[in-house]
Design brief:
Elements: H1 3-30, H2 37-48, H3 51-71, H4 76-79, H5 85-98, H6 104-122
Helix pairs in contact: 1-3, 1-5, 5-6
Length: 123
């Protein structure tokens, strides 16, 4: 895999990870809500007008374009497993930004993901 191809994949992964984090930040602002007919419009409006949610959706849209560019250059059997790097990024950023737990079990899972991505990338 060439450096430019790898960079496209990583950029797409980072955009996707940023989208997840922005959506989480937006839902934290909105708060816990129940699905019901009575609050569908008010909660829907809060979500639709939340700048973090909007930013997350924008990141998703851009990541889709970047992903299509990457898939035009790299085999899907190599590119797709690299999406799991987003899990690694999000584990650490969720810990830093939202105070989510970073347990030994999570770190073990991250290590396994990294080994798997390395093996796929080397194939």
């Amino acid at each position: 895999m060439k450096l430019a191809e790898f960079a496209l994949i990583v950029f797409g992964v980072l955009l996707n990870a940023a989208a997840q984090l922005l959506l989480k930040a937006g839902t934290r602002q909105v708060g816990h809500f129940d699905f019901s007919i009575s609050n569908a419009i008010p909660i829907g409006w809060q979500i639709a007008t939340n700048p973090y949610v909007f930013g997350g959706l924008c990141c998703y849209a851009i990541s889709l374009v970047v992903w299509i560019l990457a898939l035009s250059r790299v085999e899907v059997s190599v590119a797709y497993p690299m999406l799991s790097l987003g899990y690694v990024v999000n584990v650490f950023l969720a810990w830093q930004l939202f105070g989510e737990a970073l347990s030994t079990q999570k770190l073990s899972g991250v290590a396994i993901i990294l080994v798997g991505v390395y093996l796929v990338a080397r194939s």
